[in-house]
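Q: What would this chain look like folded?
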Amino acid sequence: MTEMEKNPNPTKDQHFMVDKEMIEYICRKANIQPGENVVEIGGGAGALTEVLAATGNPITVIELDHYYAELLKEKFKSFQNVKV
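A: My prediction, written as structure tokens:
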């Protein structure tokens, strides 16, 4: 998470997932089917978003923290299937 200028704030329940195996496990367990719309609540720095975006499914990310929302918009600006 060195690309960010701001660290997650645990007092705002900002706890970011960084374990790639856990992220992949969550995606498998979600059993997302081709073409399904996906809503991710609290995209943070985009670790889960990155895996979800690769599916090609439409992804809507809801992020209340303006810093992270802008970070996500920039990070996924080339993905037609991701909306922040």
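The chain has three helices and three strands.
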